[in-house]
Specification:
- Strands 1, 2, 3, 4, 5, 6, 7 and 8 form an eight-stranded mixed beta sheet that branches.
- The protein has 166 residues and is of the alpha+beta class.
- The chain contains seven helices and eight strands.
- The longest helix has 10 residues.
Length: 166
C-alpha cells in the first residue's frame, strides 16, 4: 500500500483542474483515486464517506478500479438526514454497501461503455449504462466528467448518488 502523500501546490492545481466538468477530455495525473478526491473540493462529501467507511486503504490499493464519484451536490439531492445517518458508526455496513456500489473492478474508460451494458460492482450488485444524446448515464446518474485517470484506475464524476437494492 502506498502511504498518503502530500501533493505540491502545483500538483493540487493540476488535479483540481482535472475534475472540471469537461466530459470530452482525458486527464492523466500522478495520484491514486483517493488523492484525487481529497484534492477536489466538490468531492469532499465522498471523501468523508470513504473515510467513515474505512475504505481509504482499499481505494489506495493497486486496483485497477473504476469509480463513479458523486459530487457534493449529488449527495445533497438525497433526502434530508440521509448522509448524516450513513456517516454514523452504527450504519457503517450500509455506508460501505452504498460506496462500493459506485466501484467496478478494472479500468473502464468512457470509450469502453456500451448502451445497455451491465457491470458488476464491488458491492455485488449491477449497474446499467445508458448512452443517449451524447451523454453516459450510470443507472439514474449522468456522467459529468469522464476518464480522469489515476495511478490505480479511473474516475468518472456523476451528478447523482446511485443506490443499490438494500
Amino acid at each position: 500500500m502506498k502511504k498518503l502523500t502530500s501533493l505540491l501546490l502545483v500538483a493540487m492545481f493540476f488535479v483540481a483542474s482535472a475534475f472540471a466538468p469537461r466530459a470530452e477530455e482525458v486527464h492523466e495525473v500522478e495520484a491514486d483515486i483517493v488523492d484525487l478526491a481529497v484534492s477536489t473540493e466538490f468531492l469532499s462529501t465522498l471523501v468523508a464517506a470513504v473515510k467513515a467507511g474505512d475504505l481509504v486503504d482499499v481505494l489506495k490499493g493497486d486496483g485497477p478500479f473504476t469509480v463513479f464519484a458523486p459530487t457534493n451536490d449529488a449527495f445533497a439531492k438525497l433526502p434530508a438526514g440521509t448522509v448524516e445517518n450513513l456517516l454514523k458508526p452504527e450504519n457503517k455496513d450500509q455506508l460501505v454497501k452504498v460506496l462500493t456500489y459506485h466501484v467496478v473492478p478494472g479500468k473502464i474508460m468512457s470509450s469502453d461503455l456500451k448502451n445497455g451494458q451491465k457491470a458488476k460492482t464491488v458491492q455485488g450488485g449491477e449497474i446499467t449504462v445508458t448512452l443517449k444524446d451524447g451523454k453516459a448515464m450510470i443507472n439514474d446518474a449522468t456522467v459529468t466528467a469522464a476518464d480522469i485517470e489515476a495511478d490505480n484506475g479511473v474516475v468518472h464524476v456523476i451528478d447523482t448518488v446511485i443506490l443499490p437494492a438494500m
